[in-house]
Amino acid sequence: MFGRRKSLEAVTRHDADRALAKTLSWPHLIALGVGAIVGTGIYTLTGVGAERAGPAVILAFAIAGAVCACAALAYAELATMIPAAGSAYTFSYAALGEGIAWVVGWSLILEYSLACSTVAVGWSGYLVGWIQSAGVHLPAALLSGPHGGGVVNLPAVLVALAVMGILVAGTRESATLNIVLVVVKLVALAIFVTFALPAFDFAHLQPFMPYGFGSSEMGGEKRGVMAAAAIVFFAFYGFDAVATSAEEAKQPGRDLTIGIVGSMLVCTVIYMAVAVAAVGALPFTALANSPEPLALVLRSVGQPMAGHLIALAAVVALPSVILVMMYGQSRIFFVMARDGLLPRRLATVSPRTGAPTLITVLTGVSIAVVAGLFRLDEIAELANAGTLLAFISVGACLMVLRRQAPTAERLFRCPAPFLVGTLAILGCLYLMFSLPSATIARFLIWNAIGLAIYFAYGRRKSELERRPATA
Questions:
Q1: Which of 224, 253, 338, 424 is the most exposed place for a label (fewest CB within 10 A)?
Q2: Where is this protein primarily located (predicted)?
Q3: Is the pTM of this model over 0.85?
Q4: How many structural domains does the chain have?
């Protein structure tokens, strides 16, 4: 019903000149996961979440993390079963059919590109705050897009292009640099918790849920715990970038399991500690929509030097998130082009680095344009919509492949797969409908454009049209 399907063998069989080099081991993959997950969400979206849920932003982080945990278990089984680039897109191609795979891939393009742009804008906010705290003031026209009265967010554009250059240099080199940046981030967050926790005041947690648990319209915006969960959800995903790297893992069975599950566990503990410390140290009204909430907390509790260091650490380390997300998007583009759904000439790799150079450059330029012109909260919400759809698909793929291919080798087996898959789907659907209606409308428009491209080009040019490989 949903189009042609690839066999499990065809998914992992590629021409030599269109195969990615195996250069990554499990430390690289854990760093990719942590590098993507611990980023702008905890550094910048804590303020946005507090504005929507009050102190219950702590609960919003827990709910978003629980939904992502179900998705992470599904990703771990599927990635070790199908060690090919493309993550949810590739899984959907094998389990659900080409039509669904296209929608998922098109949504992943939205997720990764807007996630990169969101982090670039968040990085710009920290950089500007850090520079201004040193007494240097830059031209306002170059610090925000037209929505903020400026012309272009130049720092966001420059960091996106710089990361693009790093990725062009090669996958292993990029992943090694990412490990260093991840260590910087984790040390900075440990410093934040150490200084903020002594200022914890239970009075700041009252009332705990000022806007209620559900998602309801207030003043033109959705507020409540679930409304906050729908946006701080952005802070948790990133482990799907580990699944995207499956084809480049040296030992996929071991490395991918450790990378996906390990990074998710590490990041959940970190997020809960940081959220409790931030909301306990400062009233949520002060945190609301701050572009640099963690640095603001430390300055407010009499630790200006620590706040300065946190902002500096964000400036240094947040580009690791852009690196991982841009890496993920370039691989999605690459696999869709290799399958013929996008122009196949894009699916070429550099003989020197084994990385897809052309698609990486196109990805980097498009991300820089979005980061330079749009607002952080709108970008994050739209990126979340793409991710939620991908997670819904992965939950369905987990259950479908347990029925379709029960004897296929699974190097990691998800416990209670039908329960986990169902919870992932229902949780993501609830978060999806908790997003602002305008965001959902934009997401539907994006996919309508994508389907038009698929029926006009991709369906006719598909590799399966030339060489059928149905299951």
A1: 253
A2: membrane
A3: no
A4: 1
